[in-house]
Amino acid sequence: MDIAIARPELLQVADAVAREKSIDREEVLEAMEQAIQKAGRAKYGHDKDIRAHIDRKTGEVRLSRWTEVVEDGAVENEATQMPLSVAQKIKPGIKVGEFIVDPLPPIDFGRIAAQTAKQVIVQRVREYERKRQYNEYKDRVGEIVNGIVKRTEYGNLMVDLGRAEALLRRDELIPRETYRNGDRVRAYIYDVREETRGPQIFLSRTHPNFLARLFAQEVPEIYDGIIEIKAVARDPGSRAKMAVVSHDSSIDPVGACVGMRGSRVQAVVQELQGEKIDIIPWSPDPATFVVNALAPAEVSKVVLDEENRRIEVVVPDDQLSLAIGRRGQNVRLASQLTRWDIDILTEAEESERRQEEFRRRSALFVEALDVDDVIAGLLVTEGFTSVEDLVLVPLEELAAIEGFDEDIAAELKRRAEEFIARRDAELSEKARELGVSQELTTVHPFTPAMLVALGEKGVKTLDDLADLASDELIEILGEEAMDQETANAVIMAARAHWFEGEDQAKAEG
Q1: Are 419 and 438 in contact (CB under 8 A)?
Q2: 144-174: per-residue pLDDT in tens?
């Protein structure tokens, strides 16, 4: 029979700890069993398999030694294993893999044993508590929580959330914001990680989504999904921009977020220490969205470069400082909000640049085609940017330009073709003088101008080309001449001859 001692107070302690720490009673009892096992091993031998069991109803503590039955001759540890032949003498019919369980008398906890048991219980309870905290908060990333500042460590705040402790780092606080121990703080959970010292709950008051969540609490239409916050950009403590869109045409998204006499937006502004908030209507059209984002500045004209996600904005001369904002704040926030790179020009700068571009292109056509300023100006006005454009355009389209006829159009195309042929011949000769091999054109239809550019950078053979990285090739030829994918394909084609010998050797092998 098992030797047991009733300890009903153990169940009372387990219940109290479980309630206080908000963890399962069963986990507390398991921690107690491990503590008793550790004390038992200290008394009966650390090499033995000593196990403890606490009866969940009566609190009886049973201590026993377990010995595994193994095949004869397979005993590796005599303290925890027993050969089958010996085990069958003790318990006939026992099989390999089963255990001989010997009850042990209950131990009387001395001062050291009690202290050790307490440490084990505290450690295990802390582990269970950390596990409970992680499971509780891992799915709460993105929520706003309220807590009380517990202590300050090097400017970082440890915040008591009631059932857990969170970290609010100094760089996640709004500038010039100070908290003392005992102050209430409202923050956004942006990350929950399980680390060696337990789960770490990271809070922020500068995260863009903190502002979005505050508005969701203040504006019922956002909470209900009628109004959607599309993007947020913040300069914490100073200024923010938020783009909103309404899924109900009868509801003005900006007006709903501002509220009656600004009541809703003011509630958020107060929480963010006076941070000014621009609420702008979102638009699927990038140009419209950028114009809205630059408010309160007025925009005269926009030019989009969709491939590089750049947008050029022209503003009246007196609106330049407003569009850029103090220390570039307005344009920086607008760029973060729209995720487009924004270049701002005044109307005077844009006009001057356009005139310079017009003069440059006119001079190109005057020199290349031997025409007067009037014809060159007409070509530039019609959108021709290079001599190649004249060769590619259909004759009837060129003849349809006001002031031109079929004879003038045919003559212009002839002169353009002659200029390109003459220029390419000169470039080809220069490439030959530089020592550029014509075999380069076997991997890509390089123009004579491209071959000269390569030759001037020392790229003269297939091996030279194969040694380049795609970024280097694009840098030599220019981004307008080749994209990343094409550059990679060209370099791989140039390297193909390196592997021909290997492929042939494999085939022969």
Answers
A1: no
A2: 999 999 988 888 888 988 878 888 988 899 9
Q: Which two tokens stand for residue 64?
A: 């026993």
HSE (side-chain half, CA atoms, 13 Å) at 493: 13
CA distances from 445 to 206, 322, 392, 440 (A): 52, 49, 18, 8
Residue 241's closest CA among 341, 342, 335? 335
| CA gap 261, 21 in Å, rounded | 46
- Which amino acid belongs to residue 5? I
The residue behind tokens 């923050």 is 187
- The β-bridge relationship of strands 156-160 and 165-168 is antiparallel
How does pLDDT run across 40-84, given as a tens digit for each residue? 777 777 788 888 888 878 777 788 888 888 888 788 887 888 888
Paired strand residues for 194: 199
| The residue type at 133 | Q
The answer to whether 213 and 255 are in contact (CB under 8 A) is: no
Q: Can you tell me whether residue 51 is helix, strand or coil?
A: strand
CA angle 86, 91, 94 (to 5 degrees): 85
Q: Supply the Cα-derived Rg of the chain in whole angstroms.
A: 40
Q: Which residue in this structure is represented by tokens 């909103």?
A: 244
Q: Which two tokens stand for residue 94?
A: 């026992």
Q: Is 9 exposed, middle or buried (0-12, 13-18, 19+ CB in 10 A)?
A: exposed
For residue 69 the two structure tokens come to 């039955």
Interhelix angle for 286-293 vs 329-338, to 10°? Answer: 150
Output b/e per residue, 288-308; b: 16+ Cβ within 10 A.
ebbbbbbbebebeebeeeeee
> Would you say the pTM of this structure is higher than 0.90?
no
Q: Which residue has the tokens 């599309």?
A: 230
The DSSP string of 452-502 is HHHHHTT--SHHHHHTS-HHHHHHHH-TTT--HHHHHHHHHHHHHHHHHHH
Q: Quick one: which of 381, 403, 379 has its CA closest to 391?
A: 379
Q: Which H or E element spans position 421?
A: helix 406-434
Taking the C-alpha atoms of residue 338 and residue 304, their distance in angstroms, rounded to an integer, is 13
* 4: helix, strand or coil: strand
Angle between helices 470-477 and 448-456 in degrees, nearest 10: 110
DSSP SS3 for 310? strand
Rounded Cα gap, residues 252 and 282, in angstroms: 12
The pair of three-digit structure tokens given for residue 253, joined into one six-digit string: 């998204």
